[in-house]
Specification:
Pfam families: DEAD (PF00270), Helicase_C (PF00271), MZB (PF09369), WHD_HRQ1 (PF22982). By secondary structure, this protein is of the alpha/beta class. It contains 26 helices and 30 strands.
């Protein structure tokens, strides 16, 4: 057994805090609906599939009836075939039409890798159908000379929401023949469309439906996800249409052994003298090395681009000591690579040339990597949905498999490896998105007006907030009303008003100073923290140091180097309340939700030793502040409550600060967010409340729904926060409970026992029913 070999030795075995065995499942077959063309059934049989699973047949039946449907079954349950069977059958019908282009279909994927993988799968499946099915990818990597062919001749176009928003909808007259014949829109991995990104995609889909109606088309939406809670409700929110759900998974599954793994404490001490655990990065690199030596095909999922590069690099170095042929079979995979680099890695992984891969979530979604034996997850990925998505990459060919969650030195990870019921006995999170967010909706109304003049008849499609925004858009001279319609009258493209992934501007190009070679890109929102002057940047196993970040030209100039450290940015944050929407008494305390303005500035960076994470020093930075108007949840306590909790003036700042850190760390257990999607501020005397106050806010303009979810689950959320702090074995606070990896104040001051008492006093006044 793979896990037994990994856990050999007393020290290794002690790191496993829990093992969950998910038993195998027997499959249940059905017959394809009568309306599926026999040629399509024959093509499916020639691929080795005699009969569909029952959920595949049911999905196809709804699609052929013209009903939008979401299939939410497990990883490797055949969701692709469930929607491809009716799509291919309809395309085949259309190819026999005496006049015109025939039927078309559009496929939307959240990543380019998934779209490229799906094109390969469709080509293989539809090969016996000849020229009747003409799949083509249309995204930012598609050569200009191929794009006209795709528009004119492809009948199954695979793209992403970004290209639909910026490239297809603004140019819809050039796509008129395709859109006029559009019968199906496939939305794969639909659970990824959450928060601000999901809200933007919901409005892009509404724009697509509006343009299709202009050409007389009303496409059926087919959605798929391996991990979705309340899938029909989430799909309806995303598309604006009623959607039938298929949730019973009738496919077989091999046994999955899922281990929770906590790295050991080291002899080192971190900030404020806190004990330090061995990093998840170092532990994952060890496990990936051991598995590669055993010939076990493995993907290690890592939360950051830098982490993926570092794990691959460490594993390659250690494997070279065992067998010189092994390092070449380990690689890193992340966003920001050039297109040709990504395609080459995907081919090597699919063929088996690669034995191990350290990957970011760019490879999490749907890409067929059947044949994997194991998955290592370096740090809780933020949601149970992502956890199961990543774990499901192993064993896709039906064989038994291993998944290992390696805990980071972090409050949530520590809590989860000691409370396995929070992972294995709970459903995946509900998808949180808010298409009515005015920061999201306003630019899409402008884009829609540029595509076709907006009228009052369009308002129901875009939601209840649309009509109220029109006077503001007119006042800002973004739209002009003529007779009964609003028009876009500016020279610039309306689609350029917003970045649907909420990244806040053009990506920063990473350029090697000596050669001028473009290494890749970094999102604008992350540039201040990842490619500031002096930052260590990893790319394809090579280490670079940023010599200069030019914010005017969006360029980071780097030189190759081998420093013995990594870098971590530090920032400061101030917050002011703009409007309180809801206020609930918790005894004398108050729990509030509303709008805030956050001012953030990166002020320095730390240099940390590789592997151990020991801090070597801090360097000041001079970067401009950034302001953010967003949504927040906050709570206040009174002087009497502080007295009851025995928190005096000297402990107050540290107790609030510790409670803030831990609550941010625990929120991903209750909302579909990552701790990096949210921020927090704690103030002993806030000028707007005139009381000790802790804020937790969404890290996106206009909010993303996370703080609102925190408000509605506050009693459970803060109870789990107190439990996480109290159950930690450290004396005065550590990264496993109250220290934060992104604290702008160097995790000072912090007061663990004060936080426990303060949260206890706060929770005593919590209402008995949910907020």
């Amino acid at each position: 057994m793979i896990l037994e070999r990994l856990a050999r030795g007393a020290t290794r075995a002690a790191r496993i805090t829990h093992t969950e065995h998910l038993p195998p499942r027997i499959g249940s077959h059905a017959d394809w609906p009568d309306r599926i063309r026999p040629e399509v059934i024959d093509a499916i049989r020639s691929s080795g599939i005699e009969r569909p699973w029952a959920h595949q047949a049911r999905t196809s039946e709804h699609a052929l009836r013209g009903e939008s449907v979401v299939v939410a079954t497990g990883t490797a349950s055949g969701k692709s075939l469930a929607y491809l069977a009716p799509v291919l059958s309809t395309l085949l019908d259309g190819s026999e039409a005496p006049n015109g282009r025939g039927a078309t279909a559009l496929y939307l994927a959240p990543t380019k890798a998934l779209a490229a993988d799906q094109r390969r799968a469709v080509r293989e499946l539809a090969a016996p159908l000849g020229n009747a099915v003409r799949p083509a990818v249309y995204d930012g990597d598609t050569p200009v000379e191929e794009r006209e062919w795709v528009r004119q001749y492809a009948n199954y176009v695979l793209t992403n929401p970004d290209m639909l928003h910026r490239g297809i909808l603004p140019a819809h007259p050039r796509w008129s023949s395709f859109l006029r014949a559009l019968r199906y829109v496939v939305i794969d991995e639909c659970h990824t469309y959450r928060g601000v990104f999901g809200s933007h995609v919901a409005q892009v889909i509404r724009r697509l439906r509006r343009v299709c109606a202009r050409y007389g088309a009303e496409p059926v939406f087919l959605l798929a996800s391996a991990t979705a809670a309340e899938p029909s409700r989430a799909a309806t929110r995303l598309t604006g249409l009623p959607v039938v759900e298929i949730t019973e998974d009738t496919s077989p599954r091999g046994e999955l052994v899922f281990a929770l793994w906590e790295p050991p404490l080291t002899e080192l001490h971190g900030e404020q003298g806190a004990p330090v655990r061995r990093t998840a990065t170092a532990e994952t690199a060890d496990l990936l090395t051991d598995l590669a030596v055993q010939g076990v095909r493995t993907v290690a999922f890592v939360r950051s681009r830098r982490g993926a590069e570092l794990i691959a690099l460490i594993a390659q170095e250690r494997l070279a000591e065992v067998d010189r042929s092994l390092p070449a079979r380990i690689a890193a995979y992340r966003g920001g690579y050039l297109p040709e680099e990504r395609r080459a890695l995907e081919r090597s992984l699919h063929s088996g040339a690669l034995l191990g891969l350290a990957a970011t979530t760019a490879l999490e979604l749907g890409v067929d990597v059947s044949g994997l034996d194991a998955v290592i997850i370096a740090g809780y990925p933020g949601t149970r949905a992502s956890l199961w998505q990543q774990a499901g990459r192993a064993g896709r060919a039906g064989q038994g498999a291993l998944a290992v969650l390696v805990a980071r030195d972090d409050p949530l990870d520590t809590y989860l490896v000691h409370h396995p019921e929070a992972l294995f006995d709970q459903p995946v999170e509900s998808t949180v998105l808010d298409p009515d967010n005015p920061y999201v909706l306003a630019p899409h109304l402008c884009a829609a007006a540029a595509e076709l003049p907006l009228t009052e008849a369009d308002f129901p499609l875009f939601g209840p907030a649309a009509e109220g925004l029109m006077p503001q858009l007119e006042a800002a001279a973004l739209l002009r009303r003529r007779a009964t319609a609003w028009h876009w009258t500016r020279r610039e493209r309306a689609a350029d008003l917003t970045d649907i992934r909420g990244q806040g501007g053009a990506p920063v190009q990473v350029v090697e100073t000596g050669t001028g070679r473009l290494l890749g890109t970094v999102d604008a929102a992350a540039a201040h923290t990842t490619v500031h002057d002096g930052a260590v940047h990893l790319h394809q196993g090579r280490t670079y140091v940023v010599r200069r970040l030019d914010l005017d030209d969006d360029v980071a100039l780097v030189e190759e180097a081998s420093p013995p450290y990594s870098t971590t940015a530090r920032d400061t944050t101030a917050i002011s309340i703009l409007e309180t929407d809801t206020e609930v008494p918790w005894g004398d305390a108050r729990l509030c939700f509303g709008s805030v303005e956050v001012t953030n500035q990166v002020v320095s960076y730390l240099r940390r030793k590789l592997i151990t994470g020991e801090v070597l020093g801090e360097t000041k930075l001079d970067l401009p502040p950034r302001t953010l108007r967003t949504r927040a949840v906050w709570w206040t306590v009174t002087e009497d409550q502080l007295d009851a909790a025995r928190v005096g003036p000297r402990q107050l700042g540290g107790a609030l600060h510790a409670a803030e850190h831990a609550s941010i760390g625990m929120l991903p257990l209750f909302a579909t967010c990552d701790r990096w999607d949210i921020g927090g501020v704690s103030v002993p005397l806030h000028p707007d409340t005139l009381l000790p106050t802790v804020f937790v806010y969404d890290g996106h303009p206009g909010g993303a729904g996370f703080a609102e979810r925190a408000f509605h689950t506050a009693a459970d959320w803060l109870t789990a926060t107190r439990s996480a702090i109290a159950s930690c074995e450290c004396e005065a606070g550590c990264p496993s409970c109250i220290q934060s990896p992104k604290c702008g104040n160097g995790n000072d001051p912090l007061h663990k026992r004060g936080a426990i008492r303060l949260l206890g006093e706060l929770l005593r006044g919590a209402p008995k029913t949910a907020v």
